């Protein structure tokens, strides 16, 4: 899970509690309109979105492993909403490892069960299996996995 989102969730919860306390401390007085709006946005919009994103991120590693690719030990957390869902899933992980380390890890057959290497170029790797392609791109501190169905003619 993304540490920034966890911090944002904690901040949002604290701010919502503070706004709730602020509006409840004034007896029989309608709270300032912007406070009501802010409280509504935090409680009804921001917190559910952050929680949903964190829950999706929590399952990203398992969804990647379900494809046959092991998660590199230096992949720290899923980043953003690219968590391996949908028809053509994409995963984005933050990493502390070098591109060479990640490439070396996925060149080992035991770390990519059943996937055959197709292309190795620089920081990009491409594997194929049963009409699907998995591309792995290492860009700085981000590692991107994309699973695509091979639909073009051969």
Query: Taking Cα atoms only, what radius of gyration do you get, to the nearest Å?
Result: 21 Å
Shape: elongated
Largest sheet: 6 strands, antiparallel
Overall tally of structural domains: 2
Secondary structure class reads alpha+beta
Give a description of the structure.
It is a single chain. The protein has 154 residues and is of the alpha+beta class. The chain folds into 2 domains: 3-58; 70-149, no CATH class. 41% of the residues lie in helices and 28% in strands. It has a 6-stranded antiparallel sheet with strand order 1-2-6-5-4-3. A hairpin with a 2-residue loop joins strand 3 and strand 4. Helix 1 (3-24) packs antiparallel against helix 2. The radius of gyration is 21 Å and the shape is elongated.
Write out key terms for the chains shown:
alpha+beta; 6 strands; 154 residues; single chain; 4 helices
SSE layout and pairings?
Blueprint: H1 3-24, H2 33-58, H3 60-65, E1 75-83, E2 90-95, H4 99-107, E3 116-121, E4 124-129, E5 132-139, E6 142-149
Antiparallel strand pairs: 1-2, 2-6, 3-4, 4-5, 5-6
């Amino acid at each position: 899970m993304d540490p920034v989102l966890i911090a944002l969730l904690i901040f949002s919860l604290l701010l919502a509690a503070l706004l709730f306390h602020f509006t409840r401390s004034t007896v029989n007085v309608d709270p300032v309109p912007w406070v009501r709006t802010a409280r509504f946005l935090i409680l009804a919009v921001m917190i559910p979105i952050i929680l949903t994103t964190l829950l999706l991120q929590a399952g990203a590693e398992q969804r990647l492993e379900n494809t046959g690719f092991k998660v590199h030990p230096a992949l720290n957390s899923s980043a953003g909403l690219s968590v391996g869902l949908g028809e053509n899933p994409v995963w984005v992980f933050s990493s502390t490892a070098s591109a060479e380390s990640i490439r070396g890890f996925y060149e080992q057959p035991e770390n990519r069960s059943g996937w055959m290497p197709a292309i190795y170029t620089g920081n990009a790797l491409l594997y194929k299996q049963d009409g699907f392609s998995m591309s792995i791109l290492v860009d700085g501190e981000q590692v991107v996995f994309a699973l695509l169905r091979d639909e073009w003619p051969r």
